[in-house]
Amino acid sequence: MSNRGRLLVISAVSLIAVVFAVVFSTRFGADPRLSPSPLIGNPVPDVTLDLVESDNSLRLRELAGQILVVNFWAPWCVPCRAEHSDLLALADGFEDLGVSVVGVVYQSRQDDVVAFLDELGRGYPVGMDDRSRAAIGFGVRGVPETYFVDRDGTVVAKITGPISLGLATATLDRIILGEPVESARTGEVQTQP
Predict the structure, then answer these.
(1) Given this model, what pLDDT does residue 38 score?
(2) Which CATH class is domain 48-185?
(3) For residues 147 and 65, what is the distance between their CA atoms, to the nearest angstrom?
């Protein structure tokens, strides 16, 4: 092969290497499984939940002026069991700051929900998601998923996977201070039992 031929091959290989480096470098640092919620920056969906242990219903938009933590869960979801005590602590610890935790039950039977609450405890309103209307409105792909809504009724963050007390507290602190918050993926979600 002539010197010119070798130079062309080296140039072509170098160009391909640069293209691959640029493509791959733009993908590192981003979780490809984290799909940004189209709700971020938009009003909380207008959904009404039938409360599990009451004849009352709860319309999320009527809670305007409060910061909302809307947690989608199911009694058959293993990570939901793990995060439940943290959500109870969050509801108790932030209630005086105008923060409301709301549980939305995803594709489950009410008697299973009551058994879950009997075993793991109660501390915030839990509503059944009739015909998955809330899940559709929020774009839920599985459980657990948690959405944060600011005092203006705007969805500002989504946590995909189980939420910890530390992550929830840090997120709420930023919302209370008026600082920007980010969505995160903490683990896998379950789509069915």
Answers:
(1) 84
(2) alpha beta
(3) 16
